[in-house]
Amino acid sequence: MTIGIIGSGAIGTAFARTLSRAGVEATISNSRGSESLKDLVRELGPSIKAGTREEAARAEIVFVAVNWTKLPAAMAGLPDWNGRIVIDANNPIEAPLFKPAELGGRVSSEIFADLVAGARVVKAFNHLRAGLLATDPRSDGGRRVLFYSGDDTPAKGEIAALIERLGFAGIDLGSLEVGGKLAQFPGGSLPNQNLIRIG
Ligand SMILES: NC(=O)c1ccc[n+]([C@@H]2O[C@H](COP(=O)([O-])OP(=O)(O)OC[C@H]3O[C@@H](n4cnc5c(N)ncnc54)[C@H](OP(=O)(O)O)[C@@H]3O)[C@@H](O)[C@H]2O)c1
What we know:
199 residues, alpha/beta, ten-stranded mixed sheet, 8 helices, globular, binds NADP nicotinamide-adenine-dinucleotide phosphate
């Protein structure tokens, strides 16, 4: 299984850190090219490599964490997705104004899915602040909970397995329409809930 990361900011780096802790390999990218990621990958450890956006997008699982308004540009001109899995870690709001994006009554993941036509989208890794996501998920006598949702059951199964491998406890929230909405910030009831599964 190969993993690519598009977006090397707070959330992309937090995800890479959890992969690195578990010794899972990935290629991380941003808009500025791999040279700008030299120091970051050195700090993250040997399992994380720097690459271009196109290289990251060729992986079997592509994790996307980009500012909401920059997503169309970040997803443009990439090779066909052909059923590969894309993790949507994005929320429809952005610094510095933190004004919620206009979604026209849709769930943000459904809008995101339109940008990656042909991919199997799983919403995950978006309900906690980056600083907390990056820390060891084995905490307080249990495992930190991560939610995931999506419309393709096998794709969700693969992300559930990755979540477990990284040491988190995964909870399936159902479809993008239902689960995506529950975990979305703003709008959902689950963002920032730091839950620990005991046992
Ligand atoms: N921060 C949090 O605690 C948090 C929590 C949950 C969810 N989220 C969501 O996660 C997403 C990312 O947030 P963040 O806080 O990580 O943002 P961030 O720190 O500002 O990082 C954004 C990243 O997106 C990259 N990017 C922008 N345009 C791109 C393009 N055209 N091609 C490739 N990469 C591009 C940037 O690369 P360059 O710097 O090279 O332009 C940067 O690495 C957002 O949707 C946010 O709502 C954030």
